[in-house]
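Input sequence (370 aa), recorded before submission:
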Amino acid sequence: MKKITGFLDSVKTEFAPDKRVSIFHFTLKNKNLKVETNHPEAIEKIKSFIKKNKLKLETEFKLLPAKDLDGKTWGVVNVSVANIRSKPKHSAELATQALLGTVVRVFKKHDGWFLVQTPDDYISWVDDEGIILFTEIQKNNFLSQKKIIYNGDYGFAYSKPDKKSFRVSDLVTGNILEFDGKVKNFVKVKYPDGREGYVPEKETSVFSDWLKKINATQQSIVETAKRFHGIPYLWGGTSAKAFDCSGFTKTVYFMNGIILPRDASQQALVGDFVDDKINLDKFQPGDLVFFGKKAKNGNKAKVTHVGIYIGNGKYIHEAGKVKINSFVKSDPDFNQYRFNAFLWTQRILGSEGKNGVKLIKTNNYYRVVK
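Predicted structure, token format:
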């Protein structure tokens, strides 16, 4: 039993070292082994180990996506901001969020909830009102349609091409909807569930055109970040309604065509390392600055916070609200706590498409895989 348990632990370390982005669960009791994972290679490795060592075990392997999904192993977010939780219940911790029109991978269902994986690979639970289930064919059909991206700060889709008409839903920066024509100064849109609405054209861009034109620069990152100044804090928030610290940095980069990992501790590992000291001569606008507990007594540093450097010794971050602070002690917005908690800086710009920095235009959750 110790031998098989040790082996299973090693398989988990190999295939699912971070439970936030990969699935591997097992129970071993009275020579009864149950394994659930989204890695077929892991199952084959376990089967081979059992056969090689002639172990007498009753086994049950569940490869995700689950068979009872009947082929509907994809979903598309159907509300402006879907709340995705750590467990399949509304009282559970808000782990992350996903925006309207975002494609997600669906792994299994439980009491009206679905375990999903977002484009940044994060895995958590969303309720059945948050997404519409699609087959692979339906998902690819959705991705192949002409779409718009909402680039206003906050707004609405209306039942008629008239702002006085009944509202279909609210909209936030980054929402994506199918394009269904133009009427007056409005774009007609279609939701994943078939609802129709009208959005002021000036608040939208054709998604494919937006992707071609988008060019992440130091200036564009800083301008986007400042656009969200004053927006309140929400643990798990990744939309312009409310952010947590990494949700803020993630959204800023998303609106510049780049997909960052979900959490600050994950973002701290992508891009190019700049410096682990507050050396402002090395920092560039757009760099991610990380804070937390420093390495001590053999323990590794622990990242707990992230912001964006905007130049002149200042950084913008979500801490209670999106605000600007400074590393310069003589500045009125100097923050001693953050100064003491500084860990290191990573550069995202220049690492697009490599070093863990993904691009929307090449991500399979936003394009048809041929």
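Checked by second reader. The radius of gyration is 23 Å.
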